[in-house]
Structure formats: structure tokens, C-alpha cells
Amino acid sequence: MVEYRVEAVGWDGHDLGASHLEDRLNDFASEGWEVVVILPTTAATSIRSLRAAVASADTSEFAVVLKRSTTTRTKR
User: Fold this and answer.
1) Distance between CA atoms of 42 and 74, rounded to whole angstroms?
2) What does residue 74 show for φ and ψ, rounded to 5 degrees?
3) What is the pLDDT of residues 23-36, one digit of tens each?
4) Stretch (H or E) spanning 39
5) Backbone angles phi, psi at 29, to 5 degrees
6) What is the phi/psi pair of residue 60, to 5°?
7) Quick one: DSSP state of residue 50?
8) Residue whose C-alpha is closest to residue 2's, from 73, 71, 52
9) Which of 9, 48, 49, 60 is deepest in the core (most CB within 10 A)?
10) Is a pLDDT exceeding 90 seen at residue 37?
């Protein structure tokens, strides 16, 4: 079984932003999460427009889609 999670990660810009994003990705990985896709967003971005989103000067955060395997418990 697989579970998914979507997290918003703020973009601080340039080197600081890259370092912050890297730290958050490593945090997710330490919890067993694997990145499926990272979508740049702006305050005015709609979900529908995320499919064609590209990082730009207006990028204010990233939507990070994550997944991880889960174990299913059987009732005894």
C-alpha cells in the first residue's frame, strides 16, 4: 500500500532558498517519504495551472508531492 502527502515549502530565494528546500527534502526522506514531483507556485497560482508551472522570479513556494510505502495490518 502507498500513501501520499502534499507539503508547501516556502522559497527564500537563491542559495538560502536552495538550502532550505534541501533541508526539508532531507527531513521528508528521514521519515521514509520519496519525492514524486516538486511544483513551483506563486500566491496567485491555481491547482489547475500547476501542470505547466515553471519556477520564476514570482515563485513563492513549492508544492512537494511525496509518497511512501505503508504496511497493512491484518486483523487476527
Assistant:
1) 43
2) -100, 140
3) 999 999 999 999 99
4) strand 34-41
5) -60, -35
6) -115, -20
7) G
8) 71
9) 9
10) yes
